[in-house]
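hiii so um. not sure if this is the right channel but i have a protein structure encoded as tokens and i wanna go backwards to a sequence. like what aa goes where. can anyone help
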């Protein structure tokens, strides 16, 4: 990639719309569900799957289930997207509130 192309790609990445949200990780065979929040919902699955593959996830029960059942047993789902127009500190509070809602709604473990 040439210098101008690289700069344009970096600028485009910085200008992209970022959406916060709540996501669920489900394990089909066990029926378990984990719910989390992310300031950038579009990138969280890659980060989460990477840490699980490496065995370095801080979420012990999720890591244990992943190690026992393997990656094919899991699905990732965005359950709610938060409008990113909200001011950052308000958005964080809203994410916490919505996380609590979805944990109860899905009878899930928060991550």
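sure thing!! here u go:
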């Amino acid at each position: 990639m040439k210098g101008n192309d690289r700069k344009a790609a970096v600028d485009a990445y910085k200008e992209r719309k970022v959406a916060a949200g709540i996501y669920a990780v489900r394990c089909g065979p066990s029926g378990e569900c984990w719910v989390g929040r992310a300031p950038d919902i579009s990138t969280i699955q890659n980060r989460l799957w990477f840490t699980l593959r490496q065995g370095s996830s801080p979420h012990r029960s999720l890591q244990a289930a992943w190690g026992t059942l393997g990656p094919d047993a899991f699905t990732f789902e965005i359950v709610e997207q938060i409008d990113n127009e909200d001011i950052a500190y308000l958005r964080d509070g809203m994410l916490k509130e919505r996380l609590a809602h979805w944990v109860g709604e899905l009878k899930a473990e928060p991550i």
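oh and The chain has four helices and four strands.
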